[in-house]
Amino acid sequence: MNQDMMPTGVNLGIDGPSLLADIAETAAFGGTAKGGICRLALGAEDRQVRDWLGTQAAALGGVLTVDSMGNQFIHLPGSDPALPPLVMGSHLDTQPTGGKYDGIYGVLAGLSALRALQRSGYRMRHPVELVNWTNEEGSRFAPAMMSSGVFTGAFTQAQAYGTQDARGTTFGQALEEIGYRGAEPCGQHPVRAYFELHIEQGPILEKEGITIGAVTGVQAMRWFDLRLSGQEAHAGTTPRAMRRDALLAAAHVMIMIDEIAQSYGADTRATVGVIQVQPGSTNVVPGEVQMSLDLRHPDDDVIAAVEERIRTEAARQAEQQGVTLSMKRIWDSPAVHFDPDCVEMVRRAASLTGQSYRDIVSGAGHDAAYMGHICPTAMIFIPCRDGLSHNEAEHAEAGDIVAGANVLLHAIMAADAHFDPA
Amino acid sequence: MNQDMMPTGVNLGIDGPSLLADIAETAAFGGTAKGGICRLALGAEDRQVRDWLGTQAAALGGVLTVDSMGNQFIHLPGSDPALPPLVMGSHLDTQPTGGKYDGIYGVLAGLSALRALQRSGYRMRHPVELVNWTNEEGSRFAPAMMSSGVFTGAFTQAQAYGTQDARGTTFGQALEEIGYRGAEPCGQHPVRAYFELHIEQGPILEKEGITIGAVTGVQAMRWFDLRLSGQEAHAGTTPRAMRRDALLAAAHVMIMIDEIAQSYGADTRATVGVIQVQPGSTNVVPGEVQMSLDLRHPDDDVIAAVEERIRTEAARQAEQQGVTLSMKRIWDSPAVHFDPDCVEMVRRAASLTGQSYRDIVSGAGHDAAYMGHICPTAMIFIPCRDGLSHNEAEHAEAGDIVAGANVLLHAIMAADAHFDPA
Fold first, then answer.
1. What is the pLDDT of residue B9?
2. pLDDT at residue A3 above 60?
3. CB nearest to A223's CB, from B248, B282, B292
4. Distance between CA A75 and CA A85 in Å, rounded?
5. Sequence spans of domains, chain B
6. CA A69 to CA A66: how far, in whole Å?
7. Which residues, in sequence order, are bridge partners of residue B277?
8. Is B251 in Cβ contact with A250 (below 8 Å)?
9. In the CATH hierarchy, which top-level class contains the domain A220-333?
10. How many CB pairs under 8 A join A and B?
11. Residue A102 counted as an annotated binding residue
């Protein structure tokens, strides 16, 4: 498209081939043999991609700011210098065997939106910015979403700086080493509203053949450690009636959890992903089982109710097998509800650009979840193949990639009209 | 008791305090801090206890023979030199964290029976022997029951000799090293009948308050390797309806196996003792599960029927969860039925000595299971605390220990009257 033909913005679009080329080009920084990326936060490859982003910022005439957590902001001025910026963003770090889209897509699509605005001659009132958040994955330095967490006050910069990787290097040291400890204190950067574009990392959009997910929030998540204690016994000599089989009890508990979760509707997610058995011998009835439970639901009240029912009924199930159960909550992340106006901007941007869309709740955490605490926020999802993510085989279709970037662009344009009316 | 008072044999009894003292004395050979024994086959401690047994044989005037597998036989002549010996026995090797009774009790009680016969003046027609089988446990050299296996032709001596321990030492080398490779070819030793006394290694006798188990056989055992293949998926983003959760499917399969096993009566034992999950992460729906199944029943036809039903219904269960199942049989040990006459001798010996008794099927393997293939055989069980065995805390009550030894003695005496009538 030619920017000169669409000064009103209605038909403004990003440069698809250029976005796809950026994805391919930056995938070389930490690229793996299997077509994925290993680009851990604050490593040499992370510095390479950051430097690349800085070069792009300069090329489009943006102003680059790096804050004290290494977050990179690229600023394009608006017509009203008094207004705070509308911000798009995500992250450029990856999992150790990550794909080419998780996080990266949101940053590079934001870059394509900045370019489209810059080159179109379309004049925004608000400044528009792109942010690359440091260490969203948390693979090298835990926890995940570290720098948006510091930015929004979820924890302190001192805590983040002190975090060590497996080799004992602190986050603070690693940040210095790659030269990305910026002068601006993290969190002091103004943000009027925040939009994050991301692959779904789940199967819903692909399965339903829908291109755009208007993300209404991030579901509540709770993690539990379950321990079942029965009695170790000889598999050959111990009659069924005298057994206190911790693994058989665990099987009953797992099925009961699944049934309870299903009874609370299709938005409930309950997963036992880890199970360990003691003594773990073919001819010994297991005496001890430890297992994880990952529980999620978009609504805090519902997740609390599900937890309560599981606690009551799991204990009863275990008891019926002569086994005692302890269930300890080890993580609690309340639901995030994105700004209804921002979500509506996403829906309308999808409609305007001719894309199919539906509301969706994010099952995974994102920087947007923290940003939602301090400013109007929404997210945009596009499908990814087989719902696969955190995997070198992660894939998104070119058509969806371009469509999502255009929705991001138009959502930002809608936000410019919506906020701070003249 | 005084042997001079009971020349008819009816009131003949073993010397209880001496048997208990022998158990305590030999427990020092490999004794552990926790009160158990670590006396692996053909190690230095095994030589010590073998030497000790040889000394006892000489003290009671018995003739010691060691065969080419290191099996020790102590021979007391009978009145008819043409008759083959009645043999009592078990093993003196232990698990790495074994107890003081598994195997040991059968050998030392047999020794006490030999002493009682020798000192009483009671004259048996058959020779009476005690055997200490080499490497019953199979902890250092697999498989278990190795030397009774060679003795009865289950496998060859060459196979046994070539077996290596974890350090690469062969069974043959180790046997030479401790000086217990005897001249008599293994298997050429005549045996008229075989009786083995053992702790139950299960909870039934203790729970029912019964002192003697008349063991009618050893149940059939089959081991299986089950693998369930579903689809690894994100725990937060994958709706229940789109999951192919291998662990949830495994839970359904485990409960189904338990229900099928129970439907075949109280003698069926089905145990899943090992379970491993891939990828084994709290927030990932498991894609793969590997689990063991240990299946046992006294009847070969029944175990075959149970296996068949599990195969059909487990596959269906897994399929309902969108998961494929493979079930591979990796071990098959048919049922052993002991000689009905020998079992009856055990019942009568219990009755004669005033002990409560019941028929019982051995849930574990024993040297007697192999011996049952070549001669009339039976076993005698006594209770052990909490059914605990292969454990340093293994315990049997002194009263039961003495009672069992007396039943062994009287069963042998009954066998002497029963076999080869004059």
1. 66
2. no
3. B282
4. 8
5. 3-218+335-418, 220-333
6. 8
7. B289
8. yes
9. alpha beta
10. 188
11. yes
